Amino acid sequence: MLKPAQRPVRRTQQRRQALAGYALLAPSLVGVLGFLLAPVVIVIVLSLFDWKLLATPEFIGLENYRELLGDGEVWHSFLVTGYYVVICVPGTTILSLLLALLVDRKLRGMKYFRALLVIPWMATPVAMGLVWAWIFDPGQGALNQFLGLFGVDGPAWLSSELLAMPSVAAVHIWQFAGYNMLFFLAGLQNIPASLREASSLDGASPVAHFFSVTLPLLRPTMLFVLITNVIGSFQAFDTIFVMTEGGPGDSTEVATYLIYDEAFRKFDFGYAATISVLLFLVILAVTVAQFAYFERRTTYDQS
Fold this sequence. Notes:
The chain is mostly helical. 71% of the residues lie in helices and 1% in strands. It contains 13 helices and two strands. It has a two-stranded antiparallel sheet. The longest helix is centred in the first third of the chain and has 40 residues, at 7-46. It starts with 6 loop residues before the first helix and ends in an 8-residue tail after the last helix.
């Protein structure tokens, strides 16, 4: 127990430590407030106004939300977004997990192969969109040229309402699979080797070991990868803008592209903010559902 004379000194030390901690947190806190929370609040407030950029903003309350409820184009864009997410999230997650299993080997030159797989993620989406738009070109594109070697007449990938979305989603999967592979690789290397040895002694096959031991212990990593993939897929814009501009028709007009169209082509910033709020709520609901699903199915103790 501290003596009465020592208590003021102890309190002073605690205050100094607290101030030092707040000082270290201040740059990150300013960033969160300035670039995350403040924009959300601004968008919510802006959704209550009718603002055509050059005109004076006019407060209209919930009128934008009433218009949104009956706007078929908005709901169609969310269906398209859901379609994009359903393709990208499982595709990226499964491919990145398979790649992690592939590179989780102590072979010569494996670290260079790992780095090679991450390179697509390091490139900008706009640059990748331009390259892939050329690859998918029906006339001179590399993909149809390759198919032509086997006598196959390749389709117009980005001009087909049926193929445009899967083509764009394939680019997303290709670009982010290597990045997500790193998280699965870290999770695999964090699993104790003793568990693998025990499973082998019990006579479990590699497939049985994967589903009974490896996959359950990867659930924390799986949760992180799924959440970041879902959020990233819902917010996809750059690649779609470069490759299809929401077309053909409106087959690739995701919610983010519609927000861009409303804000920077129609200059209706209030209505664009309303769609942004709806997108934010959808992402929040899906994220909360993911946490709720994994909460009782995830173990963090691998000892």
